[in-house]
Amino acid sequence: MNIKKLNLKNYKNIFIYGFGLSGKWFADNSDKKIKFFIDTDEKKSGRSHNGIQVLSINEAKKIISKQDLIIVSPVDIQDVEPVLKREFKEINWLALGVFLDGNDTKESKNYSNENLNFIQYSLNALEKCHKAYINKDKLFLRSVDIVISERCSLKCKDCSNLMQYYLRPKNFSYEQIKKEFNQLTENINHIFEVRLIGGEPFMNKEIYEIIDFFLINTKISKIVVYTNGTIPLKDERLKNYNKSKLVFTITDYGNLSKNTDKVYDALINNNVPTRLHPPENWTDSGVIQDFKRTEVEMKELFNICCGKNLLTSMNGKLYRCPFAANAESLKGIPTDEKNSVPINSSPEMIEKYTRDIEFIPACNYCKGRSFDAAEIVPAIQTTKPIDYKKYD
Ligand code: SF4
Ligand code: SF4
């Protein structure tokens, strides 16, 4: 596989930052042997891919030298650069996405078990995001989550999107979604990925019109629909979709859903790229509580939070994460204009909010989503909405 202009000959050892799909793909296809992976998530330390081991930051710092090179593979390069500057001051690094050029994974090696469509999808996102970041394109967003429903067909008591608290959940209308997204993209050049989320997006009867709207929108590259696989899909609508732009991810909740196979088969039979996976990496992050944190503590929590770049559009505002969006919608936290920016904000305001802030007031009420948080048993159901303190 030819990764254009990436010359590794002059470096002694190559390290890949990020033990994800793109990093593994690069390890499989690099002309030069990779020495180690490095990952911020200490739980991954000691794992390996095709004989290449993962080191934690501290382990890597002990052995890396000035003659070595770090290849950055996570899409969220804005979070990686400060770590490199702090922890690997004198080590050269390069952003992998800058060297990609619409790579066709069909010709490449793949020693991970992941579907080639998803590897290609990840590489496309990586290329767009790294190039936009390095070229300082202020008007590019990697992804925006669009909440189209507060309703869910399941009631997971630890839902990180806080569905377990809604007493009277509502759907958002096609007209409202369209109006707000048009307002947002008046000031944005391009969004790589729009993710339709809920609750369960198919609780919203207008979902097919909403998908149609995003499929023909030229300001976005991909639409990802997140579903729990409980609601059968309309085959006649799937047939007509532009498959190069649409992706589904289905969480397989086992006995909680009778329809998972039906939903998966409908998508595969209509050639829609689909990832079916078990509930993954659940942590105790579905809690709303006044933790009485100082500003320094909120900054620390925000810094290690892996949810802080899940930009979320809800109720005419753009938030840093679904927690803040839903907690405000529930009135489970005091309304604070610093939690979000209006959806029709200027490019400068959106840039500042999405790249330059150190925390949001909602972080005081959230347990955070750090990589090293302990995992919990996923998808335990609650029979009725959970009580919480309301701020009016
Ligand atoms: S985690 Fe459970 S309650 Fe939350 S959106 Fe997913 S299926 Fe629904
Ligand atoms: S409120 Fe703060 S800590 Fe919680 S998920 Fe959002 S950014 Fe992370």
Q: What does it look like?
A:
This protein is α/β, with parallel strands linked by helices and 392 residues long. It folds into two domains: 121 residues, Rossmann fold; 226 residues, Alpha-Beta Barrel (TIM Barrel), CATH 3.20.20.70. Helix content is 28%, strand content 17%. Helix 5 links the parallel strand 7 and strand 8. The chain is globular, with a radius of gyration of 21 Å. Bound molecules: iron/sulfur cluster (2 copies). The site of one iron/sulfur cluster has 11 residues, from loops.
Itemize the secondary structure elements and their pairings.
Layout: E1 14-17, H1 21-29, E2 34-38, E3 48-49, E4 52-55, H2 57-63, E5 69-72, H3 77-87, E6 92-95, H4 116-134, E7 140-147, H5 174-186, E8 190-197, H6 207-215, E9 220-227, H7 235-239, E10 246-251, H8 260-269, E11 274-277, H9 295-303, E12 312-314, E13 317-319, H10 322-329, E14 340-342, H11 347-355
Parallel strand pairs: 1-2, 1-5, 2-4, 5-6, 7-8, 7-12, 8-9, 9-10, 10-11
Antiparallel strand pairs: 3-4, 12-13, 13-14
The chain binds iron/sulfur cluster (SF4) (2 copies).
One iron/sulfur cluster binds next to α9 and α10.
